[in-house]
Give the backbone structure.
Amino acid sequence: QVQLVESGGGLVQPGGSLRLSCAASGSFFSIDTMGWFRQAAGKQRELVATLTSGITNYANSVKGRFTISRDNAKNTVYLQMNSLKPEDTAVYYCNVQGRRFGALYNAWGQGTQVTVSS
């Protein structure tokens, strides 16, 4: 089983920055894609950013403000969020997809709250 532990959420003023981290742990697994999704109150979960084989993909709403990166040695994915806006307020979920014992897996983190407010 692949487990994900997220950290880095919190309360920040508009225009501020936060950095989210998500560490994957387990045994005998490989990682294909690491990414971040978010879910605001009363809305569906939406993609924020993904990283696959060095290729990044961002939601239009965060392009130019958020940066996804990965530390392969630590099996950790980061989301640097700059110029935060109130509409970025949501629970942010880490997502990791890959293979374990030849089978595909799709793991989710527990979620971390990001609140952008003055």
The radius of gyration is 14 Å. The longest strand covers residues 29-39. The chain is about 0% helix and 60% strand.
